[in-house]
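Continued from yesterday's entry.
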Amino acid sequence: MKIDRSVISDQELIRLFISGDHNAIEHLINRHQRKLFSYIILIVKDKHLAEDIFQDTFIKVINTLRSGSYNEEGKFLPWVMRISHNLVIDYFRKSKRMPFLENSEGYDLFETLKVYDETIEDKIIIEQIRGDVKKLIEFLPDEQKEVLKMRHYQEMSFKEIAQTTDVSINTALGRMRYALINLRKLIQEKNIILTR
């Protein structure tokens, strides 16, 4: 009977791989590839480097699983993301440059804080980062601060923000854009690292 791997849990795929089913690891990699690769490229901003780190991450994952020292109790993705994060940090230490998360099109620095399936440790770190970001928001001009808070803390749409603040949607979008640009500058000035 053929197993439908799309409905098998990460833990079960790990168990299958450890017991000799090499296709199980391929399925695990495919399942988490997009999220993990997006996370890596978000930080390193270089496709080839991201591919190398992605590959190194799974070499480390496979070696750890084979050695029998994996014990993350159902937290496979956060564990893999920690491995990739540590490899990114190692790369930047060796090359003597630290990454800065930019607010490129379609990327929102607040989304970085949602990447992990959070463990208690992750939650503490993410809360510290959120606290730092929240303090920095207070340094923004009032109009930008208002839009940013409505969008991210009250989860309002730009249409709702425009109506509430009595401006056009384009003005609301523009304020948000400048808020994120200025926030990025503040984060850089204060040397806040937005990832673990």
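--- second protein ---
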Amino acid sequence: MSDPKKFILLGATGSIGESTLKVLRKHPDKLFLLGASAHSQTEKLSDITNEFKVPLAHLTKKPKDSTSFDPSTRLSHGEDALASLASHPEAEFVVVAIVGAAGLRPTLAALEAGKDVVLANKESLVVGGKLVTETALRSGARIIPADSEHNAVFQCIADQPHRSVDSIILTASGGPFRDLTAEELKGVTLESALQHPNWSMGPKVTIDSATMANKGLELMEAHWLFGIPPSKLEVVIHPPSIIHAVVRFIDGCCLAQLSPPSMTFAMQNALLHPHRFPGVEPSLDFAQPLDLTFHPPPLDRFPCLRHAMDALKQGGSAPLVFNAANEVAVEAFRLNRIGFLQIPHIIEEVMNNIDHSQPNTLDELLSMDRNVRQLSHEYIRSSSFASS
């Protein structure tokens, strides 16, 4: 029996991190957690490092409390130390499960060090797709998608040559408001936006699902992961979240990947690729009725998806602008500074008032990201976007 594969888990305390740990508990003979990071949940990270005897731990924010880590665990802080953890020489691969554009720098650090990256941070490709894919190509490292939709595409394409793929269809549950009218959307509250009908996710991603911004970000991610032009990327509403993606081939045949709506299926496939072993949770029961209905997304009621599709078609820095403006707007909604329907308005205003030329270096990308966030905050502070 071969030794367990050593890996780093960035974002260990989030929902993706939790799914990763479930797979680790199921297959401790195949995986070893060498290092784990969190933003500020000190106690939760301490529990993880104690349970799995993790040698390396990292907190983005230096803890204020006295939570203790096992003496055998080395704790670090700061952005540079996170990049060092992501490129640790003993790690065979790195799971990037950090939420938002903050995942870009450690993703690049891992790839530059030749580490395969199990990517559950779509913003790395949204913000720096060209830089990330070129870095992977140069170092010979692989990017293995862990998002359920992209991992589904990954499984469907398998060893098929790129030229045989005609188009990719990503499915969307439609979130908690898929059946609401435009008038009813005016009454959406933060509490209701955080109640996803199918998935258990962190608050930012859950709100993105409610606005369907998340599906737009996934289109951008798919473009870079699979080299598919925007015109060949589609979204359909599939309420039960059983089919996660469909790949249409040039001969007209379509392959779909099906599994229950839990991230453990995609995570296990990504973590243990190319091998398959017994899963963490039960599979689908085909003796029971399955709802396999689809319909087009209502772009008139979910303008965030329309803005994302426009940004993808524009190219350049437009996806970066969309992502940064969306992150700021979602945080403002969570803090009750703007209403739900103001999220797409903020995005649109920012996208219409910033240059979409393409930054080429990490420093240029991060500088532009900061500028977009500053402009987004200014729009939110303005009287026209002040929450009543």
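The radius of gyration is 20 Å. DSSP finds 15 helices and eleven strands in the chain. Will compare against the first tomorrow.
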